[in-house]
Amino acid sequence: MRRKEEVPHLDPGSLARFAPPDIAPTLRVIWAADKEHDEIRRFVLRLISLGKVRDCSDLAVAASFGRYQDLYTAITAGRALLATGDESARRDYAEYIKLQCALISSTLVWEAVEDLFPQLIGVDDLLAILKIIHLGDAEGGGFRFDWAGAKLVERLMSASDLTRLIEGLLQQLEAEPEVGIGGRSPRDEQYATALGAAAGYVVSRCCANGVDRRAAAYRRSAYEYDAAAG
Fold first, then answer.
1. What is the mean pLDDT of residues 18-28?
2. Which of 23, 140, 209, 213 is deepest in the core (most CB within 10 A)?
């Protein structure tokens, strides 16, 4: 890498085999010597992430929080921090994502949300992020709430959290500029599957608790958004 020689591609599974826990001292030596070399820096961070090398978690923290300007260092450092960081590091990273989500890569934001929701990035935090983040494809992957939002919804165990998410998403849709008759905004497309999933979960929980009026209202929402998503 230092000589700009071609590096063979290794899939994550193959690369992880080269990152047992006892590789930490070697990674530290390489990091100290070559952390300013883009490819070497990213390679070391990938090994830390894939091997969950917790003895190098401080290197992941040092490379995160905007320390390096190139996108793929930010992504690999974030993954390494999420894979190896302690509760304090993960909490600090969640705060960084919430505060900087409008300024940093949407891919970086999504990977943090995917890992930290709902424990350290809650429903209200997610709604605030969705309100300002660029939704959809972007370099490195992007923030594809249309296909991944339902997976986040599955993690919410309380009807109150689900209801708050539904109401927040609907409020954001209502604030969207009007489109032509029969048209749908990009945000409609992004929110449809999550709204359908959330409404369905609320229906099932309300029915279980005998709350028929709320169940009926959210059942209608579930049908509408399931149909829209289909």
1. 87
2. 23
